[in-house]
Design a protein that fits this description.
alpha+beta; Alpha-D-Glucose-1,6-Bisphosphate, Chain A, domain 4; six-stranded antiparallel beta sheet; two-stranded antiparallel ribbon; 8 strands; 38% helix; 37% strand; globular
Length: 170
């Protein structure tokens, strides 16, 4: 009896990679989008401004431009981050992050995500997040490469959110 139940557990354990959804990127309407709140007792626009600059100017991440709306306590930033690349292909991720003050702290949205892939000798190609997500529906090397890219995107966005939260909670 014990041998049978151990075999069942081993079999189920071996099936997990085939039935689990390993992709962790956040989706909204089949495109990459992150939304959330950062709780803070001491919310101020100056603190928000410092935090978003610090989080977006972190290693591997670059703020392209900022739009400040002091009346609504909101900052919209266009960001760019470099993804792992090969010698022949350079990948950069572009996105918009909006952070606004609210009653309990701050609300953030990361949206308008797209990747620019530059292949030497071929040129640049803009790939919207919807197309990246659709790459997961195929099989073989394309799906594997897409999953790696989406996992890297998720890790980098989680890092930006974490940096932002740490700066805003200080």
């Amino acid at each position: 009896m014990k041998k049978f139940s151990m075999m069942k557990c081993l079999f189920l354990f071996l099936l997990i990679p085939f039935i689990a959804n390993c992709q962790t990127v956040h989706l909204e309407d089949d495109r990459i989008a992150y939304k959330g709140e950062i709780k803070s007792d001491k919310s101020s626009f100056e603190k928000l401004n410092e935090a978003i600059h610090a989080a977006l100017d972190h290693k591997g991440n670059k703020a392209v431009s900022f739009v400040q709306d002091t009346a609504n306590g909101e900052i919209i930033a266009l960001g760019r981050m470099k993804l792992k690349s090969t010698q022949s292909v350079i990948n950069n991720l572009h996105y918009t992050i909006t952070v606004a003050q609210n009653k309990s702290g701050y609300k953030y949205t990361i949206d308008s995500v797209y990747m620019v892939s530059e292949e030497r000798g071929v040129g640049k190609k803009k790939i919207p997040s919807e197309e990246l997500v659709k790459g997961m529906e195929t099989t073989g090397p394309v799906a594997s490469q897409t999953e790696k890219i989406l996992n890297e995107i998720d890790m980098k966005f989680q890092k930006v959110i974490d940096l932002l939260a740490n700066y805003l909670k200080e």
